[in-house]
Specification:
By secondary structure, the chain is an alpha+beta fold. It is built from 17 helices and 24 strands. The strands form six sheets. It has an eight-stranded mixed beta sheet with strand order 6-9-10-24-23-22-19-12, with helices on both faces. A five-stranded mixed β-barrel has the order 1-2-3-5-4. Strands 13-14-17-15-16 form a five-stranded antiparallel beta sheet, sandwiched between helices. Helix 3 crosses helix 15, helix 6 (about 280-285) crosses helix 11 and helix 12 (about 460-465) packs parallel to helix 13 (about 495-505).
């Protein structure tokens, strides 16, 4: 017989009754039924009930070990009587009568329970992450992640993509987020950087002629944490293709994502092709470039209805060039006054000076602002919003960008409060036609709006002839249920177009050569048209697992302060290590004072 197990804790069935088996695992739970001990033994695969009778010579040893100890049992598979069958377990028709027992690993007192979910502080969970990962929900999330990545590899390989690995130690980039720097021992005073993304390398692979590339790529950015973004490191499905248009890239990623979400998501998935929304339209309708299309609420512009109205607070905003945005919500006229007051407070909490509303009920308008408006102005609002009896409109007035941002938050809050979001569907959309440039409000200068390496729509002609603020880029985002999965672009592979685009943004040719010389020099030696994108693996799995926080789908995540509480990272290093790297540590004044206080 095998040393530790003949079967796992998930495979024994009624057909195995009468077999002598050996199973090993963690003690999940213990029940004492009149001296007979029932143990649920758990391993990676599932649970099996083990029965220990008092006459067994190892029965007294049960007092020595605790829950979550690792035990090996040898015994006979027997059928449960009908009234004790557990239909919730795959092994629920059988149990194992223990004949012998070996303790493989004793457990001390646990910092938190495993058999049942309980409210445990996140710091405790992260410090004992190896225990936390024994929880069934979290364990399944990590297995799901493995299965999703395996499916990504299978699908892309079948579509003719090749997987390549790109360097982890590379050079610092002047664009994007803050780098993690790695000091060089062999080159004192110089540093490598961990890649924020394999962007330049994957483009160089296209210049090298490899045509279709992918990688499950680790990326490193010194960023603050969010619910959908892990600080420090994350993984993305990095893709790049040569001789492709934007539409061809969309077709590939739609096929990949559709199959992934249909296979692992347990929800309805949008049919392809996915909805495409120009950036400007998405901002106007939803106040966001990552809209959740499950939310049926949208914004409309009703500025003209207020321009000459007697409601001076809004009329004054419009006169100064601002906008009034409205959100129509059907059928909530019967809501109590507190609902509307709470919504105003929420709008103020996200930056609004205030928020007005009109309720159409009983054939009239119920609103603090209706008395300031003419019949014609009220009728124009009804027409603009297709208002019927029982509907309500909320109004926000401010500079357009601010009104849109606040409105986007209000849209989400209304949908949550009114339970308008369909939880059983994945709704995808492409955000397209991003502006190439924007105006820096502080300096008044033209700067890149998003990705400086995107191909401008219209190429060199657009850069030469059009107002920079009117130029659009072949840049796109893929969004699912309000979560941005990826940004991507058709790349600017023409050196003369790249120099011109950077010139508009205030960069000289010398600066471009200095900062991006490796890539632009490659483009001078024959580069194909190419493009790609990189959906976030962590975010994809977060959506598939229906988890609200990305840390729930990462085996060993950092906390919000970018710390690994289990391994105690980041940590101080020895003087010897610093000397080898020709480094010395200069703490910020506050940290130095704190350290001196602790030492004294």
């Amino acid at each position: 017989m095998a040393e530790y197990r003949t079967h796992t804790c998930a495979v024994l069935r009624k057909s195995d009754v009468g077999k002598e088996v050996k199973i090993s695992g963690w003690v999940h739970s213990v029940r004492d039924h009149g001296g007979v001990i029932f143990i649920d033994l758990r391993d990676h695969y599932g649970l099996t009930q083990v029965v220990i009778n008092p006459e067994k010579n190892f029965y007294q040893d049960l007092d020595r070990w605790r829950i979550e100890s690792v035990i090996c049992f040898t015994g006979l598979v027997v059928a449960r009587i009908d009234e004790t069958i557990n239909p919730k377990l795959e092994t629920g028709e059988i149990e194992v009568l223990a004949e012998s027992m070996e303790v493989l690993g004793e457990a001390e007192v646990l910092p938190f329970q495993i058999a049942k979910e309980e409210q445990t502080p996140e710091a405790m969970r992260l410090k004992y992450r190896f225990l936390d990962l024994r929880h069934d929900r979290l364990h399944k999330n990590i297995i799901l992640r493995s299965q999703v990545i395996a499916e990504m590899r299978r699908k892309l390989t079948s579509m003719g993509f090749n997987e390549f690995q790109t360097p982890i130690l590379t050079c610092s980039s002047p664009e994007g987020a803050r780098d993690y720097l790695v000091p060089s021992r062999l080159h004192p005073g110089k540093f490598y950087a961990l890649p924020q993304a394999p962007q330049q390398f994957k483009q160089l692979l296209m210049v090298a002629g490899f045509d279709k590339y992918f990688q499950i790529a680790p990326c490193f950015r010194d960023e603050d944490a969010r619910a959908d973004r892990s600080p420090g490191e994350f993984y993305q499905l990095d893709l790049e293709m040569s001789f492709v248009t934007q539409d061809e890239i969309f077709a590939v990623i739609e096929e990949v994502l559709s199959e992934l979400f249909e296979k692992f998501g347990n929800k309805a998935v949008d049919s392809t092709p996915f909805v495409r929304l120009p950036y400007a339209e998405a901002k106007q309708r939803f106040g966001s470039d990552k809209p959740d299309l499950r939310n049926p609420l949208e914004m409309i512009d009703v500025s003209e209805s207020f321009r000459d109205s007697g409601f001076n607070a809004f009329a004054g905003v419009v006169t100064k060039g601002g906008k009034v945005k409205a959100i129509k919500v059907p059928g909530i006229a019967g809501k109590p006054r507190k609902f509307f007051d709470d919504m105003i407070k929420f709008a103020q909490s996200v930056g609004a000076k205030g928020m007005a509303y009109i309720i159409w009920t009983g054939g009239t308008e119920k609103s603090p602002i209706a008395k300031f408006m003419s019949r014609e102005e009220l009728d124009s609002l009804m027409t603009a919003g297709n208002i019927v009896e029982g509907d309500t409109m909320f109004f926000l007035a401010d500079k357009e960008d601010k009104a849109l941002d606040i409105g986007g938050n209000v849209l989400t809050e209304l949908a949550d409060k009114l339970e308008l979001i369909d939880k059983d569907v994945f709704k995808f959309c492409w955000i397209v036609d991003f502006p190439m440039f924007e105006m820096d409000e502080e300096t008044g200068k033209i700067i890149f709006s998003h990705n400086p390496f995107s191909m401008p729509q219209g190429g060199m002609d657009a850069l030469v002839k059009e107002d920079p603020l009117d130029i659009l880029a072949y840049q796109y985002d893929i969004v699912c249920n309000g979560v941005e999965l990826s940004s991507g672009a058709i790349r600017n592979h023409r050196p003369e177009i790249m120099y011109k685009a950077f010139d508009i943004a205030g960069y000289s040719q010398a600066e471009v050569d200095e900062n991006f010389g490796g890539m632009i020099n490659a483009f001078k030696l024959g580069a194909p048209p190419h493009g790609g994108l990189a959906p976030g693996v962590d975010r994809i799995v977060m959506l598939l697992a229906d988890e609200p926080n990305i840390r729930e789908v990462i085996a060993f995540p950092f906390n919000q302060q970018a710390q690994d509480l289990m391994m105690n990272a980041p940590a101080e290093v020895s003087i010897r290590q610093l000397k080898e790297l020709s480094l010395r540590v200069v703490l910020p004044k506050k940290e130095q004072e704190k350290q001196e206080k602790q030492e004294s």
